[in-house]
Amino acid sequence: MFTLERRVEQSKSWLVFSPIMAIALTILSGIIIFSVLDKDPWMSLYTFFIQPLTTGFGFTELIVKATPLILIGVGLSIGFKANVWNIGAEGQFTMGAIAGGGTALFLNTQESFLVLPAVLLMGIFGGIVWGMIPAFLKTKFNANEILTSLMLSYVALLILSYLVHGPWRDPGGYNFPESEIFSDFAMLPILLEGTRLNLGTVFALLSVLIIYILLSRTVLGYQFKVVGLAPAAAKHAGFDRAKLIWLSMIISGGLAGLAGISEVSGTIGQLLPSVSPGYGFTAIIVAFLGRLNPVGVLFAGLIMALTYIGGENAQIEIGLPAAVTGLFQGIILFYLLACDVLARYRLRYKPFLKARDRE
Amino acid sequence: MDLVAIVLTIITASTPLLLAATGELITEKSGVLNLGVEGMMLIGAITAFATTTITNSAVLGVLAGAAAGTSMACVFGILVLIFLANQVATGLALTIFGIGLSALVGTGFVGIALEPLPKLDLGPISAVPVIGQILLGQDFLVYLSFFMVVLVAYFLSKTRLGLILRAVGESHDSAHALGYPVLLVRFLAILFGGFMCGLAGSYLSLAYTPLWAENMTAGRGWIAVALVVFGTWRAGRVALGAYLFGAITILQLHVQGWGLEIASQFMSMLPYLATIVVLVIISRDGAKIRLNAPQSIGKAFTPSR
């Protein structure tokens, strides 16, 4: 009989190996899913996972999609480490887009190089405010942050919908629910001519670097880890749990806000009723797949971005429903969670009868 | 606006919340937090809708919806109880997976309209003004939701099995030491939660709005999770909460009819904002939460040898 035996310490090699195993299992499941959908599995796998990367443009699109996932995922991983479950990154992302995008619309006639910094700062601020509400409700009233942050996501999406259908609708836009197009002064510079690759990607890389240093080189980073792994020890050491809740919500909210404003002022160029294909939720998977480690999140962001552009490509090329993307994302997280058991536990084979005999 | 009509719509809006929250209540009482309610409801909704469309039988549809919710819960149970995965993360995975799978299956069913679930018809008795119309003219899932609340309340407080379930939720180590099968109890509680979420989803796609739309639960699963906290883990109060939220949902539809000029988006925010407000009011009193919340909730159990 097989039994699970708790490891004294998490196995480092399994922590790296289990995401790889989860991805492999997801691809295997993909073969089954494609067959069920009556598509040639190998052809589908190729169009989904490989073909998007065969062109230079496809490659830059991968990075464009990975950028918000990495920005949000890095922020979330800090909170998750400390068992602060910010599930509302989608809302903080949207609020960043609203606050920053609103600033861009307000300053749309200004021809100044200060417009962009103002837009970005307001975007970050919007995300922070939306992240601070659950932090306040958690620290002051002990209200569960999973539920409050998620409810606030719905609220943020409805606010955006109201704004683009109402006061912020472009008067010259033939009644479409869209804002005016941002002026060039509010737009993030394009890094590579002819692509959508913009400065947002640099923000993502910087956030990875900064959070990596914060977690591995500072006392604060150490506190985040201890609070998550050993809450009782953290309490005895006098770590301020409320402070860590505030900080992780502010950091993850701010980064989600930055991702939101980078998306609208870097990639989209105006406010639309929907500015995110669920980046805030996918980033939760990115954080787990990246082992709550900033460098891991970087790779996980690229992999999850591939499910987006692969899904789009497969939709155009072989007519797969767009929903396959979401399905793959859910499956990958299932496999990851299942594989992770081997990082924390050791599989032991015990001959059942003999063990009894000895007793 | 006719008062009877308002009450009828409130019942319709409350029933899915009540079904899902009653299921989640049992799951949480056994010490397991399943945040996949939204995903299980969506899978239940599309399965029920697809089955009814294909077989033309609403009964088969509801059964299939409940079975689909149960099988989703089964996946959750295996991951959480056997693979000892983090409950919060697994619940989220269940929701993300449920949104994706239901959207995929549902692509072929968008735009089809079904006949709503048949309502009880006792002829003239069901037509008796007010009482007859409200109490005797509902579809069977509404009656089932009430029956389940009473059953769950009785089960938890008056039966031996209910006591065992609560013991497992309070302290899995003590329950294990007493010889109760902790993992089996939890697994069954998880399955019951999935079964009820499947019913809740079926109600949405067969009775509430008899059509399929991607992501049609619109956060109701999460509100159901919040309702369990709101009801401080007691069946009666959970039911009260479900009806309060149903009323809030309906309020938003009627306000515009009363001539108030408020953008529809702000009215749609009401249930979400109300969830936050009630969570704050209930959670503020730490003693009340500690008194009623299952002590082992969210913790993995590995039997010591």
Report on this structure.
Chain A has 359 residues and is mainly alpha-helical. Chain A has a domain at 65-293. Chain A has helices at residues 12-36, 41-50, 56-81, 89-106, 115-141, 145-165, 200-217, 219-229, 231-236, 241-268, 279-289, 294-318, 324-339, 341-344, 352-358; strands spanning 2-6, 345-349. The two termini of chain A are 16 Å apart. Chain B is an all-alpha fold and 305 residues long. Chain B has 13 helices and no strands. Chain B has helices at 3-29, 37-55, 58-82, 87-106, 131-135, 140-158, 160-170, 172-177, 182-208, 220-230, 235-257, 264-284, 286-292. In chain B, helix 6 (140-158) crosses helix 7 (160-170). Chain B has a single domain (3-292), classed as ABC transporter involved in vitamin B12 uptake, BtuC. Chain B is globular. At the A-B interface, strand 1, helix 6, helix 11 and helix 13 of A face helix 4, helix 10 and helix 12 of B.
Mean pLDDT across the residues of chain A is 90
Largest sheet of chain B: none
Question: What's the shape of chain A?
Answer: globular
Helix/strand order of chain A: EHHHHHHHHHHHHHHEH
Poorly predicted sequence stretches spanning 5 or more consecutive residues of chain A: 355-359
The strand order across the widest sheet of chain A is 1-2
Oligomer: heterodimer
Number of domains of chain B: 1
Mean of pLDDT of chain B = 89
As a percent range, the share of strand residues of chain B is under 5%
Question: What is the distance, rounded to the nearest whole angstrom, between the alpha carbons of the first and last residues of chain B?
Answer: 65 Å
